[in-house]
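Dear colleague,

Thank you for sharing your sequence with our group. We've completed the structure prediction you requested, and as agreed, I am returning the results in plain text so they can be pasted directly into your records. Please verify that the sequence below matches your submission; if there's any discrepancy, let me know and we will rerun it promptly.
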Amino acid sequence: MPLLTPYVASRSTDRGMPESTLDVEFTANGPRLAYRDTRPEDRDKHGNLWVRIEESDDPGHVQYDSLHSTRQRTCMENLLCQICARPADRNKEGWLFIDWRREDSPPTWPEKSLTTMPPLCTEHARISVRQCPFLRRGEHVLLRVRKPHLYGVSGTLYRLTTTGWVSTENGQLSPYSKPRYPGMLAFLAIRELRGVTIAELP
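Please find the predicted C-alpha cells below.
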C-alpha cells in the first residue's frame, strides 16, 4: 500500500507570507497585528490573525512532521479527518483521536490533553497506525472524546516597535478564555480533549 499523504501535512515548498505584508490596525482596544491587504478570512471569530500560506506550483515533498496551517485549522474547527478531510468518526463515546504523552501533558492525561492533531475517520486511523513511524513505536493511545473543546491557538508573538512588528516568541499559546494577544499571528488551532475514553482500534 502506498504511503498516505495526510491532508494536514505541509510541503517543502509551502511558504508563509513575508513580514513586509504585516501592518498595524488601530481599533477601539488599541493597535493590533494585521495584513496590509485585509481579508475577512484572515481572522477567526475570536479576532486572532492567522498566518497565510503561499503554495507553489512545485509540489515539493511532503513534510510529515509539519502541519499546513490553513488545512489544520479547517479540520480542527470542523472536526474533519486529518488524512482525508471528511467527517471524523464519531460514536456514542465520542470522536476518534490519537494522542500521546508529552512533557507538558497535564497530570490528568489523556483527560484534558491539549492537541493540535485533528481527529480521524476509522479507515485512516487503521492505516495511520500501520504507516506512521512515530505511531508504530507504540507511544500513542487511541481515544474516544465526547467533548473535544476548541481551546485556543498557538503561533508567533510579535511586539510593536517604532520600526514595525518584531517577532519575539514562537509557539506561544493563546487560550480563547483569556484576553487575545494583539500581536499574535496564529498558526495552529488547539483542542482540549474532555470526556476521554481509551479505545481499541476500530
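Summary note from our side: The two ends are 19 Å apart (CA to CA).

Kind regards,
the structure core
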